[in-house]
Amino acid sequence: MIRDNDTLAALIDAIRRFVRERLVPNESVVADTDAIPEVLVDEMKALGLFGLSIPEDYGGLGLTMEEEVSVAFELGKTSPAFRSLFGTNNGIGSQGIIIDGTEAQKHRYLPRLASGELIASFALTEAGSGSDAASLCTSARRIEDGDGVHYLLNGTKRYITNAPEAGIFTVMARTDPADRSARGISAFIVERATPGLSLGKTDRKMGQRGAHTCDVIFEDCRVGAEQLIGNREGVGFKTAMKVLDKGRLHIAAVCVGVAERMLADALAYAMDRKQFGQSIADFQLVQAMLADSRTESYAARCMVLDAARKRDEGRDVGTEAACAKLFASEMCGRVADRAVQIHGGAGYVSDYAIERFYRDVRLFRIYEGTSQIQQLVIARNMIREAKT
User: Fold this and answer.
1) Where are the chain's structural domains?
2) Please, is 27 exposed, middle or buried when counting C-beta atoms within 10 Å of its C-beta (0-12, 13-18, 19+)?
């Protein structure tokens, strides 16, 4: 649902120019240094990128889902590392607070997330619980003493995006040790300086240099009861699933943007590269790869927009979000593969951006739920609907 077409068009135009003029020229800098220059981070804050989906009452832009994916299409046209830095503030790092947080929690954290003063992380995955998130082992033991009610968190979270930069973590922990199901899980807001919280070494990844992950370790980490999201135990897993539905649409939109960027680069290269006295873009087998990529990216864009509009209407889009994320992320991988093929040997060396993108986009088929998890979600929803 687009509230004001002129306002959205102005925002998208500003972001498109920022991507083209500031981010794209710095892609190699980020890849070489594994860091985003502070001057660019400051410009991201000034553009409001850290608060795109945070409600206006708390200092954000309050974009609807359709508006957000329209922006994500543009943000996807550069290195995914840039978007990753502020992506958690708009998605999994803030949405739990927005959806289920108390007013006190919202007023304490959302304005600082919207401004970029705070970076948020979402700590769900563990060494033994990734796709099977409900089997997590991190515990939160409730204690009442002279200082009031608090929880002691113990456990280790793995592959946590933006953890090295984060000021707060939304942490999923088991408050009911007797209940090994999802009902025993609660969500906490844990600040970086909380005693008992420490970080592992930053992971060395296949791609997405400049976007950092690491382990988050809790050792008798004492968290006040007021940090329990919504002041309710046992609803943390439900909060996580609500957050992931929205996140899957956002990632699907980013996949579309990246695919369109890779395709534009491949087309430009094909038109410039000469073989047998003509541009390789004139060869039908190259044209087939270009055409297939254009068709699939267009289909993914349509899927994302359709699902976003349904979500804005208040409809349950669990199936549609999973479909969009599955198709868009797999499509993005296929486009990357074709783009490398079109570049030939040049696509295998780092002089061309496609070598980096080929590695970067592989992650899209893993996080926010692997492709196989999306298949299970879709099929199970189909079966459940057929039984009603």
Assistant:
1) 5-115, 120-234, 238-387
2) middle
For domain 238-387, the CATH superfamily is Butyryl-CoA Dehydrogenase, subunit A, domain 3 (1.20.140.10)
Percent over 70 (pLDDT), the chain: 100
What's residue 273's pLDDT? 97
Query: Could you tell me which CATH class the domain 5-115 is placed in?
Result: mainly alpha
Residue 260 bears catalytic tag:
no
Quick: pLDDT tens for 201-211: 999 999 999 99
- Of 21, 66, 368, 385, which is the active-site residue? 368
CATH code reported for the domain at 120-234: 2.40.110.10
Q: What's the per-residue H, E or C state across 147-164?
A: CEEEEEEEEEEEEEECCC
- How many whole angstroms separate alpha carbon 133 and alpha carbon 182? 9
Alpha-carbon distance of 334 to 358, in angstroms, equals 10
> Which residues contact residue 22 at a Cβ distance below 8 angstroms, ignoring those fewer than 6 apart?
40, 43
CA 357 from centroid of its chain's CA atoms: 16
Q: What is the largest CA-CA distance in the chain?
A: 84
